[in-house]
Amino acid sequence: MRQLKANVYAVGAIDWDRKLFDELIPLPDGTSYNAYLIKGSEKTALLDTVDPTKTNVLIDNLVKSGAAKIDYIVSHHAEQDHCGSIPEILLLYPEALVVTNAKCRDMLMDLLHIEEGKFITIEDGQTLSLGDKTMQFVFIPWVHWPETMGTYLKEDKIFFPCDLFGSHLATSSLFVDDQATVYEAAKRYYAEIMMPFRGPIKKNLEKMKQLQIEMIAPSHGPVVDKPEFIINAYKDWVSDDVKNEVVLPYVSMHESTRKMVEHLVDSLIERGITVRQFNLTTVDIGKLAMALVDAATIIIGSPTVLTGAHPKAAYACILANSLRPKAKFASVIGSYGWGGKMVEQIAGLLANLKVEIIEPVIAKGSPKDSDFTALDNLADKIAAKHKELKIAK
Ligand code: FEO
Predict the structure, then answer these.
(1) pLDDT of residue 184
(2) CA terminus-to-terminus distance, the chain
């Protein structure tokens, strides 16, 4: 059995083959559904379960662990990739009780039809003894659902924060063995799942300061045995600081918008700005989301289609609007044939972002010299705005 510390075991499942989460998020490196078994001198607790597609793996691991009984199933979060196997585990261990907060309990009753009598409902900060080990429950709401909580195992100084600090990474390594790879996967995970909740995460990071944490065991990806690695990364990502970067998702039908994108990108590079350009016909939205974590400016490139933005550009706007990156500026470039409301539509689709809109550059037909000059002016304005923020020289 894979062991984090004495009598603390990893009993979850690695999903090497999963390629998509929520029918939206690409998983280029698979994922894992981490569950942990804690054998105290008197009681045994299972922290979370696994996605229902991997219940058999969890059951095999529990059998291998030699756990004759499970007293408590701690459910940190009601999303099914962690709680989906609870009904099966309750059939195998009928004496087990589900330990969670009131909000999560109600969601588990709705989602999994678990009877109310099977729950122990706990409060924030409450402890539950396993004998020689003590679980302390720490509510960490909105990472990324409202009911999410973590468990701090006091004697071992392990924090189990469920999705927070996770990474979609299938690996045979129990612990982080390659920080660069895990950093990339964790940043992708943050960008896709956690970024809309920067505010609550900041508060939860503050709250965690009261815990002496030696190890972080999330519900996806490897266990972090040097916690400052992932905590410092999160502090950077959730901060209000942006970088001297422009993200430019675009789509072009007949080369007009593409010519404008290429010109603007060259112009920005000449001004010392890092640019991340994404063709929306082939984009990995995880990469686009990651680029949005740090960028000071977002530029949408789109032709006008049926009087509005190209649907792929509209999709990128809806995605960015949902993820709520901390960008400070936005603009639009593109083309039109005979009119339309593309700019107004795109500005409306980005309504959640607290950005200043810099004057768009929209060409009639194929861009002319005056349009390329306007793009250079746009690059000048972006460079000046970045200098005002003291993120560019
Ligand atoms: Fe990994 Fe929010 O579930």
Answers:
(1) 97
(2) 54
Q: Report residue 385 as tokens.
A: 């705005």
Nearest-CA residue for atom 2 of ligand 1: 79
> What are the extents of the domains in the chain?
2-238, 246-388
Ligand 1 centroid from CA 336, angstroms: 42
Does residue 245 line the site of ligand 1, with CB under 6 A? no
Band (pLDDT 50/70/90 cuts) for residue 393 is confident
Q: Using the mean position of ligand 1's atoms as its centre, give its distance from the Cα of residue 148 in Å.
A: 9
What token pair was written down for 203?
């508060």
Q: Whose CA is nearest to atom 3 of ligand 1?
A: 79
For ligand 1, the distance from its centroid to the CA atom of residue 131, given in whole angstroms, is 30
Q: Cα angle at 298 between 297 and 300, to 5 degrees?
A: 150
CATH class of 2-238: alpha beta
CB of 148 sitting under 6 A from ligand 1: no
Per residue in 213-271, pLDDT tens? 999 999 999 999 999 999 999 999 999 999 999 999 999 999 999 999 999 999 999 99
Percentage of the residues of the chain whose pLDDT score is greater than 70: 100
- Per CATH, domain 246-388 is 3.40.710.10: no
Ligand 1 centroid to residue 163 C-alpha, Å = 5
Question: What's the rounded Cα separation, in Å, for the pair 267 and 343?
Answer: 22
pLDDT in tens, 36-80: 999 999 999 999 999 999 999 999 999 999 999 999 999 999 999
pLDDT of 79-106, one tens digit each?
999 999 999 999 999 999 999 999 999 9
Complete DSSP assignment for 55-117: HHHHHHHHHHHT-S---EEE----SHHHHTTHHHHHHHSTT-EEEE-HHHHHHHHHHH---GG
With a 6 Å cutoff on the Cβ, whether 263 touches ligand 1 is no
Q: Is 147 in the pocket of ligand 1 (CB under 6 A)?
A: no
Task: Report CA(345)–ligand 1 centroid distance (Å).
Answer: 32
What pLDDT is recorded for position 221? 98
Choose among 379, 41, 80: nearest CA to 219. 80
Query: Is residue 192 lining ligand 1, measured as CB closer than 6 Å?
Result: no
